[in-house]
Amino acid sequence: MTVIGFLGLGHMGGPMAANLVRAGHTVTGFDPVPEALAAAASNGVRPAASAAEAAADADVVITMLPSGRHLLAAYRGTGDGDGTLGLIAAARPGTLFVDCSTVDVADARTAAAEAEAAGHRAVDAPVSGGVAGAAAGTLTFMVGAREEVFAQVEPLLSAMGGRIVHCGGAGGGQAAKICNNMVLASSMIAVSEAFVLGERLGLDHEALFDVMSASSAQCWSLTTYCPVPGPVPTSPANNDYRPGFAAALMAKDLGLALNALHATGTVAEIGARAAEVYAGFAENGGAGRDFSAVVEEVRARGGDSRDGNV
Ligand code: NAD
If 0-12 CB within 10 Å is exposed, 13-18 middle and 19+ buried, where does residue 100 land? Predict the structure, then answer.
């Protein structure tokens, strides 16, 4: 049994913390949103009055927060006078810090370095699998950690996930996550464009799906999250594009990918364009819809396709 402090009990963190309780761990949680804290308490999480309190007696501190800004603020706090004591200062030396949020690679490295400088161990372990995977305990964890620390964290992550992949040192998990989602966004747009072109050429969705799913265009965006209703009955397209994976989260992840492209001097024309498409889609009312609803934006595009202004 491990004593865990869990910070961020939202859509993902709530069910993840519940799975740790189910696995027999003692979990003390904190979230500034009272409803989130109460929901977690109903699943056996012990509510703390502050983030620092949740971290104080923990062997492991897990964070599942909205962004890198939230992560660094939680790690650092605002001072121990009148301000809030940060997690790094509140925890006992040697505590294992596990950040499961999706954040900038640079922020992940900064957070890990600051935790290690204070005598802790630190890993980044972002996830894929969404809210359903969090509830079912089948998340994929992409882990950036020193070799020996990965061995320590793997059994714990197994209580929340089905696949745990070591992606290298600090920031490696975040790097893998944004590379994966850059491909996912690009493939979803490409599949959507193919269906819209097919519609205009008189192809029905089932026929095009049957061909592409058994041909070289086969991919997850087609066979699991097919953006048109019909061919894959469980895809969000059959449920009015309720997420699933909301376009706002995809736009966020692509923003992180853009930061990494700039930081490394990498030119990714398709990935950068996908970031633009999803930022626009989210801003124009699509934020809360599944990211496969981008097919409607593709269908609504006007202009002359010969000049690329599709
Ligand atoms: P969410 O907004 O539902 O939950 C985040 C929670 O963190 C909120 O309840 C918020 O009140 C809390 N919080 C903020 N500051 C805090 C602090 N200092 N201490 C404690 N709690 C604090 O978001 P979510 O959907 O659970 O996503 C969490 C992270 O997981 C994000 O980084 C997101 O990009 C990533 N992610 C989400 C999904 C998904 O499908 N929702 C999938 C993969 C990855």
Answer: buried
